[in-house]
């Protein structure tokens, strides 16, 4: 009987150093090896295999870290430290972490960071199901037609956006709750209707809220937040 195996990207993500998507990029770049042989996509790992990144053996999983961060405008949600505005250098956390998903450089608000590659994969796979809430200011008065069309779905990036909740808060300010994660989705939706976004702030991801967290600061997720988050992700089937 063959020894139990796991896909290489899942193994790497399981050590907590990156997400599976990032592991796939490392495989494509030739940075990962199994027992001294450069890995290729589709490789699997069995007990006793030695996996290395840039020649250094990947260690055991560290204690999990889960942070909520209030991102300022101008910070890029990337781990690429060649980018002078990258989120990792800005936070300067003492242990290796990475963002879950993205938030545009010009946008502000809640973004989650972790060293747990498994939860990153779960949340990103659930991206078309979990709620993300934003407060948006546009460049001209909001109309009933704008609210109706935004909530009903618009053509973006070759597909139609899902129906969503949109509520006017002021003459030029609205609240929107999305269950999608298309690239620059809100900005593209507004542009389709002839509006330009002036400010965009994410205030909630699933059950985790930005409330009370100052700009540029981070905090660990509470035990209650983690319990609720895990409960929401529990029904998802893990990849093999």
TrEMBL record:
Q: What is this protein called?
A: Pseudouridine synthase
Please spell out the taxonomic lineage of the organism that makes this protein. Bacteria, Pseudomonadati, Bacteroidota, Saprospiria, Saprospirales
Superkingdom of this entry's organism?
A: Bacteria
Q: What PROSITE patterns does the record tag this protein with?
A: PSI_RSU (PS01149), S4 (PS50889)
Q: Which family does it belong to?
A: Belongs to the pseudouridine synthase RsuA family.
**Repeat in keyword set:** no
The entry lists its GO molecular-function terms as:
RNA binding; rRNA pseudouridine synthase activity
Which organism does this sequence originate in?
Neolewinella aquimaris
The answer to whether the entry has keyword Cell inner membrane is: no
What does the record list as GO biological process?
A: enzyme-directed rRNA pseudouridine synthesis
The RNA-binding S4 domain, residue ranges: 6-68
| EC number(s) per entry | 5.4.99.-
Q: Which UniProt keywords apply?
A: Isomerase, RNA-binding
